[in-house]
């Protein structure tokens, strides 16, 4: 197969198999229950024994293409939920952070990576809030930086 879909990366053997398939040129699409892109990397690496983690970091840095994180939030404008997302595409800077395990720098690279199609969860939440799809309280509950959300919200109110 050219594409392999894994319903959930839950255990060591499933993650190892998915990484091996990706290294051999398959497109592997999988789900993982984490809160954001940096935590996804932490989870993928930490499931391995300490003596294997350096090798897994290198493998991930070489074969990972992107991490898309989503949160489904109750809509305020109509019944249902709306997706807030975070997209991290692996470019040179992200790859270097993965190899060096400097995950604390990933958020900054995501924020400046708009030309590569990246955005942080707070940007998505602010967009949903400004367009009145979600409530202010839900945006604050799900964000990393409440000041960013508040600033975006207030600047939109001031512009009207």
Note down, in words, how this protein is organized.
The chain is built from eight helices and four strands, in the order βαβααββααααα. With 160 residues, it is of the alpha+beta class. The strands form two sheets. It has a two-stranded parallel sheet with strand order 1-2. A two-stranded antiparallel sheet has the order 3-4.
How many runs of DSSP E, i.e. beta strands?
Answer: 4
In DSSP terms (H or I, runs of 4 or more residues), the helix count works out at 8
Radius of gyration: 17 Å
End-to-end CA span: 53 Å
**In which order are the strands of the major sheet placed?**
1-2
Structural class: alpha+beta
The helix/strand series, from N terminus to C terminus, equals EHEHHEEHHHHH
Strand content: 15-25%
Q: What do the pLDDT scores average to? A: 95
Shape: elongated
Largest sheet: 2 strands, parallel
State the share of residues found in helices, binned by percent.
40-55%
Which residues sit in consecutive blocks of at least 5 with pLDDT less than 50? none
